[in-house]
């Protein structure tokens, strides 16, 4: 499973790391700004994920049951790339459509890459976005912007623009831009009250991600290749999240980017679990029927 904007690689040691996450999720989570570390499980807790005390065997794997963010969370807001530059604003269109009402990119000069530049995309009417299904559990849209078409996914109060094959060149403005990344609130605008709320949301997001990871891993049954891939993807997520959020303004103070990417990762795990064949879910939980050997004839 790959995150839409981040390529994941298979590293031999990652398998052991993720099985540590399965056994001790509290010790494997990344500590974000203001985050509270989960208490270690008690000795009385069941050792097998999904097991119930007193039950005859482990229960079928279940996800956290998250709901994907809706477009209402971004309508009427000015979103800024990496919390620092550019502007992307949305409105609800006719029916249930979504439109971009304001779009500005910042970048570097084509002739002189040391010069900063800005491009205001002006249109006679709002830019209508084309629904492109759901990618990894998130609503996805395509934006047919001349000279710089891109795709985005809806997060809670933010959008994640997919990585482009190459930066966009606006020759008339002598400006080269790359819209890929997280567009959210300006980093300077997040106050202490919001940070406290996000601390609680972060704890829930980390918990949901662990739950969904365990469910997906259990659904692989005895498929060693699938287990290895799932574990490797999860092991690489924390470092990829850190790289993706490194440039978000004041991320070390509020952790907004890390929170939203964690929520997105949890939804991606849940979507992958739900997409697996029904007979694969909980396959590792089912025991083969007892076979009695035929008695030898006298």
Keywords:
alpha+beta, 21% strand, twelve-stranded antiparallel β-sheet, disordered C terminus, 298 residues, single chain, 12 strands, 6 helices, disordered N terminus
How many beta-strand segments?
12
Task: Give me the secondary-structure category.
Answer: alpha+beta
- Helical proportion, percent range: 25-40%
Number of helical elements: 6
Terminal CA distance reads 57 Å
Note the run of SSEs as H and E.
Answer: HHEEEEEEEEEEEEHHHH
Beta strand %: 15-25%
Question: Rounded to an integer, what's the Rg over CA atoms?
Answer: 23 Å
Q: Average the pLDDT over all residues and give the rounded result.
A: 81
* Principal-axes shape call: globular
Low-confidence stretches: 1-55, 280-298
How can the largest sheet be summarized?
Answer: 12 strands, antiparallel
